[in-house]
Write a structure and sequence with these properties.
Distance between the termini: 36 Å
Largest sheet: 9 strands, mixed
Oligomer: single chain
Radius of gyration: 23 Å
Number of strands: 16
Helix content: 40-55%
Strand content: 15-25%
Number of domains: 2
Structural class: alpha+beta
CATH topology of the largest domain: Alpha-Beta Plaits
Number of helices: 16
CATH architecture of the largest domain: 2-Layer Sandwich
CATH class of the largest domain: Alpha Beta
Amino acid sequence: MAAHTWTSARAAKRIAARQKEVTTVEIKEYVRDTDLTALPRNKAYRVNAAHIYVDIKNLSEMLASTQIEGETCHKRTLRFLNLHYRAVHRILAEVDAIEVDFHNQRLHAVVAKPYGDEAGRVHRAVAVAQLITDVLAKTGEDGDDKIPAAAVRVGIDSGVALAVCNGRRGHTEPLFLGAPANLAAKRSAGSKVGIYLTNTARGVIDLADDVIEDDTALSAQEIERSQEKAALPVSADQIVKAWRKDLEANPIGKFSFSGHTPPFSNLDLETLTPANSRRQDAVSIYADIDGFTDFVAAGVCDDEAAKDVVRTLHVLRSEMDAVLHTEFGGRKVRFIGDCVHGVLCEGTAQTTDQAASVSTATLCAAAIRSSFEQAITALEDDGTLEAGHGLGIAIGYDLGPVALTRLGVKGAMIRCAVGRSVLESEEQQKRCDGDETAIGQSAYDAATSAVQTAFGASRKRADLTYEIAVDELADKADATAKAAKAVAKAAAAGGLLQSSPAPARDYAFADRRTDPNKPAGFA
């Protein structure tokens, strides 16, 4: 197992380099059919549009379809998501909406047309939301391994947001920053299905704008009114027919899993397919910038303030990614707005060292917080951030079987990581304020006594920085922390010990299959 360390000096060097990349930032107004798919990191477009968030509510049921979280429930879940993603991808292309992100069970799309007509955009967003709902109600599969239709809840808001580049190292897509995206996501987060508009969006189309947003779904009559005004060029039956024809011509391959020899940092996610997927016990980590929505809202309409938003996001997310990937051998699955989702593990392709994985994740989460605080100070020092910005970072993680693959069709494939621990790690992040870190029950149970003591019965800890974490864990005989501390001490003394980088892919152990492999003729 490599000893992973974090140092303030390395972080400072990276942060300074990222700051230089966005010294000059350009803010432009979105115009007709502007291509947002390949934005440079120092350019953003101000876009007035309606935002749609679709949340598939029965994903957790798929993951819980078997008592043991084995390959069967992961294969069913991935097929479930793949079927529905391909249907939604087709819908958005047909109705000329912008596909922003499809992160496991959540879809974010933007309706920018008709230009200059906000009411028209909201009506169109409602019609698109109902079309997605109707299509996904028909895209399950019968048979021995029945795949259910998706049960969805949709949130919609309207307003101005910033479109920026999302992603690094060859995996980029548009990202929309601002209240409309965030508030649409919040409206989609409830437990009941239906279409839920913010009071802002309701007011735009002359509906009562003083309702309890999360409890007031659109009525059938209200949806029909929007459908009539939007007059979408395609019906649910047409989409389903084309979807089925496409599945016949381009069937979803069978999901086949192998383990990946750690670290995950040398796993090329862009080579994954259903037949070439990865699956093993791993730690899923969510790190979310707390207070960022209000920060964006305060600056979205002012050019200079908007430039600072772009600078801040670029520096903070890049450093979070670097800590995960470079320092601790993890792999970013994707950026989700101002949040990073990643995975890491210690051990072999066949057997994960659970305790060591949790200890490494604990040090990684603490290092992310230390780097975040250092980046905030650097941004304050160069004038990008003013006093009272209110930014913090909330981190959650958990341990369990994780399946990694890509879904969709060639030319439009998306990264995907599924597992009960993936859902739980996000829930742990959500219970944190901007100075807190939380660990899931499974990770806590597998952790060393040092990690358990650090978090206590609440499994949540405030102000857990790298220096605090490595000292506390090493002092209580956590082997991972002791190794990291020894490497740091040797490096400070000018010794030969160094933190081990991720091994070159050519010299990593070969990936091994994790499904049963018996000779022909044997039961």
